[in-house]
Amino acid sequence: MAPTPHSRSERIARLCAETALFMRDHVLSRVSHDLRSPLNAIHSWAYVLERKIETVDAAAQRALGGIRTGVEQQVQLLETLVDKTRAETRKLHVERAPFALDALIGEAVDDVRVALADARAVTLTVHGTPTGATLDGDRERIAQALWLMLTFAVEASAQGAAVTLDVNATAAAAGFAVAWTAAPQALTDEGVPHLLEPFARAQAREPLEAGRAAWVLSLCQRVAEAHGGRFEQQPLVEGTATALALSVPATAV
């Protein structure tokens, strides 16, 4: 049965919310990690200075005490606000069950086409289907990752461009490669329709860190890791071919 416009819009809204949730988790993780190292260093050096400064220098001792107290307060904030906020998505739970791969691909492509690609006159083409394959994994999570990969490709494509999904299903793994010609400026062009949040699209235009993907693609990374697979993003360089690749084992690992 074809989805009704109402049910499709609800699903798209949920997919956008999941994308934002996992990006938030990634940002909070970076904040927690990147702040702890300098805070620990400040705390350690405060103790070193304390041993070097005469105890009779009350003002200096109070200043060092204030530094240590400030560091401890910042660490407590990280633990009570940042780390607890991340608890919901820190460990991605997957519910494995066999499912037909072709149906999932068709639904994801249709959702992206209706929600964004048609409005941007972007053509979506799928190669490698039908596969006839059955995958043992979390269907909902893999569908979310594939939807996000295709949506990001459309977001980062020029009006009227083409996006290709290559599917490679074997007895060992299922691979999805989304390829297109990069148009990074389209991510922040307010003259065209968008689905992803402005902050997410703006950050995706920044140069990639080695071995990392854009923050908005954090959900794809987490889904791949939870299934024992891999996710990779190639850089976005104006006018050049680029790609996203997701690979998940065909059975539980």
TrEMBL record:
SMART domains: HisKA (SM00388). GO terms for molecular function: kinase activity. Residues 30-252 form the Histidine kinase domain. Signal peptide: none annotated. Its EC number is 2.7.13.3. InterPro entries: HATPase_C_sf, His_kinase_dom, HisK_dim/P_dom, HisK_dim/P_sf. PROSITE patterns: HIS_KIN. Keywords: Kinase, Phosphoprotein, Transferase. It is an enzyme of class 2 (transferase). SUPFAM superfamilies: ATPase domain of HSP90 chaperone/DNA topoisomerase II/histidine kinase, Homodimeric domain of signal transducing histidine kinase. Pfam families: HisKA. It catalyses: ATP + protein L-histidine = ADP + protein N-phospho-L-histidine. This is histidine kinase. It comes from Paraburkholderia denitrificans.
